[in-house]
Amino acid sequence: MSSLVVRNIGQLLTLRGPARPRVGGEMSELGILTDAAMLISDGVIVSVGKDGQVEADGATEVDAEGGVVSPGFVDAHTHPVFGGTRVDEYELRAQGASYVEISQAGGGIMSTVRATRAASEDELFRQSRRYADWFLKGGTTTVEAKSGYGLTLEDELKILRVIHRLNAECPLDYIATFLGAHSIPTEFRDEPSEYVDMVIHQMIPKVWPTGLAEWCDVFCESIAFDLRTTERIMMAAKEAGFGLRMHVDQLSNEGGAALAARLGATTADHLERTDASGIAALADAGVQPVLLPASVYALGLDHYPDARGMISAGLAVVLATDFNPGSSPTTSMPAVLSLACTHLKMSPAEAMTACTVNAAYSLHRGDQLGALTPGKQADFVIWGVEDYREIPYFFGVNHVRSVWKEGRSVVSGSPGLRV
Ligand code: NIG
Ligand code: FE
Fold first, then answer.
1. How far is the CA of 79 from the centre of ligand 2 (A)?
2. What pLDDT, in 10s, does the model give residues 344-398?
3. pTM here?
4. Residue 325: CB within 6 Å of ligand 1?
5. CB 148 near ligand 1, within 6 Å
6. Could you tell me if 199 and 270 lie in one domain?
7. Cα–Cα distance, 77 to 324 (Å, whole number)
């Protein structure tokens, strides 16, 4: 049995609380222990408490040097496997072109689809492995990972196999989502319904039995899949056995939130354009909103989702990066925390809750991940700050000192508090 004790923790963010996602005022309660210690055995937390009171005979000692210790981030919305980059489009947008214009001119998601189809499984693995290191270095220990840049059965399965291999070979944990309905591929532009039929009748029934994806997602938007089509795809996915997550109301309010509520989706993601009636529908159905402020920022837009309205309505808000090569090229959850505080007017505590315990529940992992209490998996970050609010406040600086996955060090050597 291998034991580890982390001592001299200035603030231990335990996120203790009820065994469910946190809502309303609960989102502000981080369960902070000061001058704390945490004992871990075989990758699982055994006890947390005041430093002097945690007994740890024979355990290896780690000194947190008075810094903050938080749960590893759970990033509940990413697109981390793709060929190439879209750095050219980034430059075009800097010159004034919009995301929709670029997409209508054949770029956007389709340009990544072309590069992803052309890449071998090994190439995709190597490229994505590099991003896995970025996630870990930013304090993220689990990601939800979508396919969606293949748009043929074979290319979608290729991406899902890469996600499976990443999960097996790197310390970062991946939870896979099938996103065959990410875009209508160019070859189906004249007959989009044929692609939809293919997703429903060929892809969904063949992907589910592979066990390579546990969730299914659709990009519901006028430039992608309309409401009626989204509903058909999601119904087929639900029947096959998938859990449902949905991209809705990102660029326009098409009633996507109400649809997510009607379908009983687990999450509705983006929601930049969702109004009060959409928020009320999500609240009635208990759907968790996944907010992605980095994609608003990176597209140079200014219409952020109404996080305050959602928290007031009792929704268990989640924050995620949306890491992808087009609208959100960042793996950094600290950057998302900063955007959430500055633009969504969430408090640092609410933002922390949104990307740890609430994110874990949105992936049905709330019993294992997202909190530092006895029985939880020991996925945690030691930060080079004494006050957790400094993580979003001193933005653009990586404050991560070390990252630990199931009690094992996976990132180390970054500067500490004392210089
Ligand atoms: O979540 N909205 C759709 N999908 C991504 C964008 C993907 C891309 O541009 O490659 C998103 O923002
Ligand atoms: Fe996305």
1. 6
2. 999 999 999 999 999 999 999 999 999 999 999 999 999 999 999 999 999 999 9
3. 0.98
4. yes
5. no
6. yes
7. 10
